[in-house]
Fold this protein.
Amino acid sequence: MEVILTATVREESGKGAAHKLRANGEIPAILYGKDNIPITLNSREVQKIIADYGTSHLLQLKLAKGKRTSKRPVLIKEVQADPIKGHLLHVDLFEVSMDHKVTLTVPLVFIGQEKRPNDGSLIEQLMYEVEVSCLPSIIPNNIEVDISGLTMNKTILVKDITPPKDVEFVTAPEEALVAAVPPKVDTEQEATEETEEEVATAAPEE
């Protein structure tokens, strides 16, 4: 499915211009490629795309400059947001070549929890994304990790999962993705229980 992001070439620059854009529901951005082009994006459109597809999805940038419009394949390189309010402040995009591989991070999705043996272990997610290399046209939306057979004190590493066809993992093979661990014990509560047990079982002196 083709996802289109609209943009216009930005003529003005500086903090004042950026503040004016944001006040009008737009955000400044940079398109990196053969030439670095300052552009303007619609804030709501960018937020919706990120919410629906994440930041690793191939986009078609519909770029307008005056009366001329061009279309370019791009990926989101970086997103800057207000740490308190969460409002988007700036976006970096980079233009890709469809016949050259790109390296980027893809989110992990863990499946099979309901099929795991009931051995009392808890699932500890150690990584939330992995780095992959592939052509822009086959970037996976996510990488599935099946944990249905994961038992107590076992770990799934990058090398234990198979990437989609023509996709290579860049993340090191020995990196741990998820583990099944024993339930955590509240040491303070355990110490209190031990003390109470000692008091209860101690024989009173005659």
About this structure: The helical segments are 15-23, 43-53, 187-201. The radius of gyration is 25 Å.
